[in-house]
Amino acid sequence: MRAKRCGRCAGWLVLGFLLFLTAPAPTSWSPPLTPTATDTSVPAIGRTWPVGVRPAVLRGWEPPATVYGRGHRGVDLAAPAGAPVRTVAAGRVSFAGRVAGKGVVSVELTGTDLRTTYEPVTASVEKGAEVEAGEVVGTVAPTGSHCTTTCVHWGLRRGETYLDPLSLLPPWLLHRGPSRLLPVLGVPLPK
């Protein structure tokens, strides 16, 4: 009787193993929609540059290889001293004060887990203030810049992860130069 039961169990094990081997591969896996600390995707929610209309980017974003490694954790935008500094998207001011002798304004962006920072800035807002996209949060400080000329360092973080702040701006706002129309397939060009 016991041999019969073991034979039946062995049969089921063999059948299960064969089904496992012949089962189709699982479909592609999708990551969860909730962002993680290493999520580098950024929604293009910005509506304006922090300074000027299309300021020159003096130094771009260079992510460090390690937490304390060399790099540039933001972008430097050319701006004259006294120029207004605007928040690129709506949010709440989480910091307005001095850090290492430089004026800094940080804004937690509404509906996201992102925070932008602008420096060196003479703040015109206080911590806790609600700001709209394009609202002035201060002016470019005449001193304290790490650029060879006056500039604004614009940073973006998700938690402790630095991200490229230019990714907040939609492509049409980043584009320089005139628009170019392309021909529509099947429609002849005018002569």
Q: Could you tell me how far the N terminus lies from the C terminus, measured between alpha carbons in angstroms?
A: 94 Å
Secondary-structure element pattern, one letter each: HEEEEEEEEEEEH
**Biggest sheet character:** 8 strands, antiparallel
Q: What would the principal axes of the Cα set say about the shape?
A: globular
Radius of gyration: 27 Å
Unreliable sequence segments: 17-38
CATH architecture of the domain at 57-167: Distorted Sandwich
CATH class of the domain at 57-167: Mainly Beta
- Chain-averaged pLDDT: 79
* Beta strand count: 11
| Number of helices, counting only DSSP H or I runs of 4 residues or more | 2
Structural class: alpha+beta
Residue share in β-strands: 25-35%
Helix content: 10-25%
- CATH topology (level 3) name of the domain at 57-167: Glucose Permease (Domain IIA)
What is the name of the CATH superfamily of the domain at 57-167? Glucose Permease (Domain IIA)
Domain M23ase beta-sheet core: 71-165
InterPro entries: Cell_wall_metabolism_enzyme (IPR050570), Dup_hybrid_motif (IPR011055), M23ase_b-sheet_dom (IPR016047)
Keywords: Signal
Signal peptide: 1-25
